[in-house]
Amino acid sequence: PYATAIGCLADPRLLPIDQTTARYFNRIAYDVAYAGIASEFSEGERLARVLGDKRVMMMGNHGVLVAGDSVAEAFDALYYLERGCRTLALAYATGQKLSVLSDEVAERTARGQEAEPAFADAHFAEMRRILDREDPSYAD
């Protein structure tokens, strides 16, 4: 809900205001050309072009698309994207001016996150262990 809410803003950029939002610095594609339900193959091609080499796309007035080399990577990216969007939405809600990180700090933070690729697998495995314990019916 938070990523969708940010995607519905006139400026849907995920600004780097903390460690979580900085993880996505210069790593999100933005599509602000929503024109209704996509029913044509050409719309999928257009979206693929917009996504380009990114793994996250904020789809204006629609939602978010996240891709990864594995389910674990996609889950981890979406999990932290939603947390970052929540932080940004809460910061916007104060009405005060945002304290946006410098490009240098944001980029260094994003690269630091990318340097830990095994984290996504560990995060996903832990979430599955929690589900196994709390509600194993998800696996049915």
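(the above was protein one; protein two follows)
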Amino acid sequence: MRSFGAFVVASVALSACALKGDVRRVENEVQQLRAEMARADSARADFFDVTFQQIITLQQRLTDSVRLQSQRLVAFQGTVRTDMTEVLRLLVQTQELTGQSQQRLSELQDRLEERERVPVVQGAVAGDTSGAAISAGDVPPASEIYNVSIQQLRRGSVQTARQGFRFLLSNYPDDERAGDALFHIGESWERSDPDSAAVAYELVAQRYQDSPRAPTALYRLGLLAEQRGDLEAAQVYYNRVVSGWPRSDAAELARAKLNPGR
């Protein structure tokens, strides 16, 4: 009996020792787990701190970049606004100068056309519509032939007017109106036969260089060349006007053709 009791007591003592060892082991494991969890929490906190700081830094950079771009945009808008104001000013100035140039050219053109409209003198045959009645058997004065031909040209009877001018040139080749007569022959051909008009104008420039019709004839040749698309030939004619008759109204018109931007 005593032996059994001692065995029981020994077993209980051993069990108690084993239980304490297990409890201590479990406590150690719990402490290790807590330590690992603490390290993990610390690492996670450090990670989030770093990431959050990076996000803040990136956001600050983006904000600074947006602010800088905004400042540049405002400055650019100011520059563009200034440039646009200057462009508008120059445009208005150019339009004013262009208007003045166009007015000047129009005045010159009117002067040339007015010079071409020679008034009929008192000795002209008024009301004569036949035109073809001019005869070589009884040659009238050059002034009468010229004025009758001018009347026919104004009335639209270009063929009759052309015959009259040719009659004047045949009978009075040295008359002061000869250059005008040849010029009007070219003028009568301009719409129906530009090539014949060009021939007449060229003869005016060659034969009657002292006539005020000469530079105008060359200017008309330049216009005809432009109409057929030969810009190189047109420039040649305009340059001939400028070099040969630099002070004429036709020369100023020719310069405007040679330098359209001025």
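Reviewer note on protein two: Residues 118-136 have pLDDT under 50 and may be disordered.
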